[in-house]
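for the recovery benchmark. tokens below, seq after
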């Protein structure tokens, strides 16, 4: 099809693909219960019920793990905004509606499990968590809400939604999995492995719909792909102090520019055969060429980050050595 299709036409054309994806999802997904992944025996009352409020010394997680867990949970907490976005761009009848509701229910399960784990184990400040949750949800979310194209906020289309969420779900899967490893704690690792498995299935669903979209309307799909990747940000960018948190997470190896390029962007572009197809014409062909330039730009960003990270780690190592030497001197002075 060469003519531009409306979102209503695309919804109709892609409905068989959605139904197939739904059937596949239900056949391979594994139901699980959040309460099975929470060490309830570690829990105790907080002050309001005669217990003890949170103290930083109670957390067994590293700074990187704490920030990554907090960022992951606050991202999941903004689920009402995500549900609204996909419900507005899809429709609630037939397999599309079935998927929207199922996806929402599974994503909500992630937030329930993460919060229960963090509050029961006292891994992070629950008061700060609640304060940030309220602010984050109040800010809402839209993939295009902070991105301008030709001086105007772009109007999202069906392709914008499914292509954006393909990359986002894959990135979220990787972030959850690496956060579990960073926690260096068995229960957290198992929980986040379970969550990341769900995110992987979600990614496959959206990836396959997008792939079908490239077959039905390649130029339209390319237009959305170019817009999404040129303006891509994770949904957690609305979380207060996102940039500071993102730097800590990147330096800690949970999610950095190299991971984004090698494990998220390139695998999806290869799956869709973006640089091998010959059915892009006009502006879409130029956009495909610009994506090749974007990949080069991302490579340069990876190299720059690697240098900056090394310098940062060296500075921190020198600080640690000076502190250790100072403490040793104090101890020696005290002993004498």
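predicted aa per position
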């Amino acid at each position: 099809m060469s003519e531009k299709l409306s979102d209503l036409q695309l919804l109709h054309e892609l409905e068989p693909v959605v139904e197939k994806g739904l059937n596949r999802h239900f056949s391979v997904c594994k139901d699980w219960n959040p309460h099975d992944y929470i060490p309830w025996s570690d829990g105790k009352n907080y002050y309001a019920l005669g217990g003890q409020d949170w103290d930083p010394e109670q957390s067994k997680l590293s700074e990187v793990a704490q920030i990554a867990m907090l960022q992951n949970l606050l991202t999941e907490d903004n689920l009402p905004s995500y549900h609204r976005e996909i419900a507005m761009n899809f429709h609630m009848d037939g397999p599309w509606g079935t998927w929207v509701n199922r996806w929402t229910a599974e994503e909500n399960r992630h937030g329930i499990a993460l919060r229960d784990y963090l509050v029961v184990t006292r891994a992070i400040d629950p008061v700060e968590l609640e304060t940030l949750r309220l602010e984050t949800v109040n800010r809402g979310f839209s993939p295009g809400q902070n991105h301008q194209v030709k001086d105007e906020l772009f109007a999202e289309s069906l392709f914008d939604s499914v292509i954006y969420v393909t990359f986002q779900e894959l990135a979220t899967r990787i972030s959850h999995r690496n956060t579990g490893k960073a926690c260096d704690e068995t229960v957290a690792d198992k929980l986040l492995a379970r969550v990341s498995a769900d995110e992987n299935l979600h990614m496959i669903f959206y990836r396959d719909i997008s792939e079908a979209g490239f077959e039905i309307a390649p130029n339209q799909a390319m237009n959305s792909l170019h817009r999404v990747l040129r303006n891509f940000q994770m949904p957690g960018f609305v979380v207060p102090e996102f940039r500071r948190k993102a730097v800590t997470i990147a330096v800690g190896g949970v999610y950095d520019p190299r991971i984004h390029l090698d494990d998220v962007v390139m695998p999806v572009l290869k799956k869709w055969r973006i640089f091998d197809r010959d059915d892009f014409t006009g502006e879409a062909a130029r956009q495909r060429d610009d994506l090749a330039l974007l990949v080069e730009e991302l490579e340069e960003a990876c190299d720059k980050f690697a240098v900056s990270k090394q310098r940062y780690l060296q500075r921190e190592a020198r600080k640690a050595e000076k502190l250790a030497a100072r403490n040793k001197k104090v101890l020696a002075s005290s002993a004498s």
